[in-house]
Amino acid sequence: MNSDILYTHICSYVQISRDEFERFFNLLKPVHLKKGELHYIAGKVPRYWSFILKGCLREYFVDTQGNEQIFQFYEENTWVGQVESMITQKPTDMNLQALEDCELLCITGDDMCNAAKTPWIQHYTIQNSFSQNAAVMKNFNRIKSASPEVLYLEILNERSSLLLRVPQHYIANFLGMRKETLSRVRKRVAHL
């Protein structure tokens, strides 16, 4: 499997030699998911922390009324996983589902903990985690306070690829609105 995508991604955060990278890369296992397949499931401890080479996934939980609530969408060049669940060995309450056929590079929790003793991996994971956590918090705060039009415009401007890859009812769920509301917002925005 081609390692250039991950190498380029890591080098955007830290400078490492190709040899250092190859030692890390050898810990990764290629995993292919078919559309609709779950990579991890609520009630179990996930096995892998995964880098997305190709595809789009949704992470969601089921609320107390039995409704799915989408937490986040993940696309190429992103790590995804329930690291805390893997480290503590406590089951996650999240599900991760492929929305299209996906290619992942996966590392077990044990292998990642061992690899994290390497200074460049420590620096990379800290930098990458800060970046991903900031994006999640920004999204969470925005959904709590912004109008439906603002939410849709932001996804249109910042993550427009999702609008082509993800069914509209999932977009509406992610933005915290009904499918009908999203349809009205899309019509209003189209006339701006």
Question: Characteristics of this structure?
Answer:
192 residues, alpha+beta, 4-stranded antiparallel beta sheet, 21% strand, RmlC-like_jellyroll, cNMP-bd_dom
Question: In the CATH hierarchy, what is the class of the domain at 4-118?
Answer: Mainly Beta
User: Helix/strand/pairing class, anyone?
Assistant: alpha+beta
The portion of residues assigned to helices is 40-55%
CATH fold name of the domain at 4-118, please?
Answer: Jelly Rolls
Strand order of the largest sheet: 1-8-3-6
Order of helices and strands: HHEEEEEEHEEHHHHHH
Share of β-strand residues: 15-25%
List segments where confidence is low: pLDDT < 50 over at least 5 consecutive residues.
none
Distance from first to last alpha carbon: 45 Å
Radius of gyration: 18 Å
Say which CATH homologous superfamily of the domain at 4-118 is assigned.
Answer: Jelly Rolls
The averaged pLDDT comes out at 89
* Assigned CATH architecture of the domain at 4-118: Sandwich
Largest sheet: 4 strands, antiparallel
InterPro entries: cNMP-bd_dom, cNMP-bd_dom_sf, RmlC-like_jellyroll
Organism: Chitinophaga ginsengisegetis
Domain Cyclic nucleotide-binding: 12-107
Keywords: Kinase, Transferase
